[in-house]
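Form P-L/3: holo structure prediction, ligand gamma-amino-butanoic acid.
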Amino acid sequence: MTSLRSSRVSQCHTDVSHKNNNFNCSRTKPRIKFKLKADRSDRLCSRARASASAISMLNLYVIIINRVCNSIACKVKAVSTLHPRLVATRKCPCSMTVVRALLLLLLFFCASSSSFVTASDQDEVLHIGGIFPINGEGGWQGGQACMPAAYLALEDVNKRADLLPGFQLRLHSNDSECEPGLGASVMYNLLYNPPQKLLLLAGCSTVCTTVAEAAKMWNLMVLCYGASSPALSDRRRFPTLFRTHPSATVHNPTRIRLMKKFGWSRVAILQQAEEVFISTVEDLEARCKEAGIEIVTRQSFLSDPGDAVRNLRRQDARIIVGLFYVVAARRVLCDLYKHQLYGSSYVWFFIGWYEDNWFEVNLEKEGIECTAAQMRTAAEGHLTTEALMWNQNQNQPTISGMTSEDFRVRLNNKLRTEKYDIDNLRYPEGYQEAPLAYDAVWAVALAFNKTMERLMGTGKSLKNFTYTDKDIADNIYAAINSTSFLGVSGIVAFSSQGDRIALTQIEQMTEGQYVKLGYYDTQADNLTWLNREKWAGVKVPQDRTVVRRELRTVSLPLFACVTAVAAAGVCIAFGLVVFNIWNSHRRVIQSSHPVCNTIMLFGCTLCLAGLVALGADGRFVPQDQFAAVCQARVWLLSIGFTLAYGAMFSKVWRVHRFTTKAKVDPKKKVEPWKLYTMVSGLLVIDAVLLLSWQLRDPLRRRVELFPLEDPPNALDDVKIRPELEHCESEHNTIWLGVMYGYKGLVLVFGLFLAYETRSVKLRQINDSRYVGMSIYNVVVLCLITAPVSMVVASQQDASFGFVSLAVIFCCFLSMALIFVPKVIEVIRHPKDRAESKYNPDAGMSKEDEERYHKLLAENDQLQQLITAKEEKIRTLKQKIAERDAQRSGGQTVIGTTAIQQQTTIQAASITQDIQDEHI
Ligand code: ABU
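OUTPUT (holo model):
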């Protein structure tokens, strides 16, 4: 594209407009109104020429002379214009003979030259057809510039005496609008209307495809000056096709080379649904695969690219190769502006043959909803790749004697006469390809020249070519195939597929202008890089969003707190085990089945240790050891639960058995083995289930992925992918169902037993009521925690916090309920005897308490009664003593003895009274 910018002119050529065709160029719009009556006029010319040759030249001259003389003699007006002095003369003067002779000579000369022209028109003109896309709505309307270029070439070729000597090349052309149907119609018109065409020029891939596919039926060569479709490189499908336009596949090695240069290995493709782009994409896909470049998505559209652009965004496409005609390109640009697929994170590869200002023209006409400024913004930074279509050596004379810059000047002049605003850089479509059209005509002339030489000895001539003449067609084919010359587009040569071999150039839109970045020679794999690229961001855009995986772990403070509390719980449990053993001789301990309590404590310890394992996630544990942590969690929590809860369960179970048996010896002891058997039974079931789970379907690390999140310091191309580790086996739900089912049953049954024995007191199991309370607590917490923890499983902190709280609460409460009363009792009554009188764990029932208080009250009454009787005895003794003192004398001794006996009898009688009362 930037070849437009190079403006060195070494030589100027006068513009000569073509004679046989009629162009009408509107002044207001640089759009060609194109009327061609060439076929009809040619037909008439041929007929005229044919009749002229049939009449005897001499007769013709005589007739003409006589007529002229008669006319002169009979005051014909026209003669007066020839010779004003004769106007006054009424009759032919004597000198009429001289005039007659002169006229005869003149007419002979004219007739001779006319006879020469007529012969030339009839026999020495080689006709070719031209199909130019000019006034269409979509596609490539490159005929706007290519047709004037072709006619320039025609003039130049026809001027060359050494080329097609004695022959003129004539072009019969019409507009195809880049519509294959219309193109076919133009072709049939060219073929079925005389004169015989020797070759067709065509432009626009869709039309070329149709024309070239049909032309082989007429043994007609087709030379495409503006068709890039890789599909045209199929020699079997298009055996008579050549093109000066390189195949669009020449861009693909360049694109791949650039992708490698910038380290892009993930690209997307957006294409218009046309064969030219489909076949280009197929080639690109194959090359990407070969180069290890992933094509993340391939989106295509017919006319509205909206959905396709949206999909690109959804797929997080960053490097996008866009293949579409320019009208569609404007729609794409507007859509990518709307969906913000531009800027520092995106790189678009567009086709390089759009005109320089393609993104800001025709917006209103085509109903584009973006402003020119928005289009400029969206277009900024995109890359283009294009085959070089102008000879890069601007001072190098080409086959026509012009340099490419001379050609540019001539073409510009010609386009100016057709009212294109070239001076304001408003170029018609196809300006880039104009050298290809120019060189195509030269290639035709050279090939015809060569064919003529070849046919010379065979008695055949090009002018005798018919659509059934395979021999001449083969000769033309061979001649084009071997054509090679330096044209204004560079070296013109054709590959075995009829393709043009070309260099590609890479450009970038920087501040609204195309800047040349470099060239790539596919054949030599040589990239010439000018280091002029500019990116909107600070660095080369990345080919994908950099996704940083971030493991969601349990928050450290929470884990630390839980670990500290769990450690404290473990210490307490060990302390209580020691307490249990230390005081094992005491009845309060003995009657509570200390081994069961120790098992319970051990279970609590395992559960608390399980909490540490539960919080030990990817922060502490390497991935390869995570499965072991998963197993540890399950084993610790499950076995811990079974031991702690099983111990309590077995106690309430025994109590229930005692209360439900018809006759139980109250003094009968509870055999400890029965309790241990219960715990062991539960433990065995647990172990069997866990072992089967572990062996058949072991727990593994499964990572749950969350939607992408923006990092705190949001960078365009970095996203956070949160992930959370889970312990799961293949049939996780089944195993969890079995485990929860089994433990749920034990919990519910324990709850039932605890409820049933809520007011039962057994001397043999003195703490059964506290155990019952503990069971209530565990059941309620477990039944809440299990489902809740499943619901919040994706929130690591909530889940861990909830489970930890439940386990800690259960363990601490159970230890407190079972051991605190015992500890208090032991502290209160450090001596065995005192403690044995009052058994706090036996729990004084209400009746006992009432009876006790009643006995105390009775005791008080009796004490009072004894005190009263003793007072009475003392009083009586005092009276007796006084009486004895009054009776002192002879009978003193006898009397004293009698009184003493009586007093003793009375006292005995009182004591008896008291005893009776007591009884
Ligand atoms: N460079 C113009 C190509 C047009 C086409 O292939 O249809």
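COMMENT: The two ends are 131 Å apart (CA to CA).
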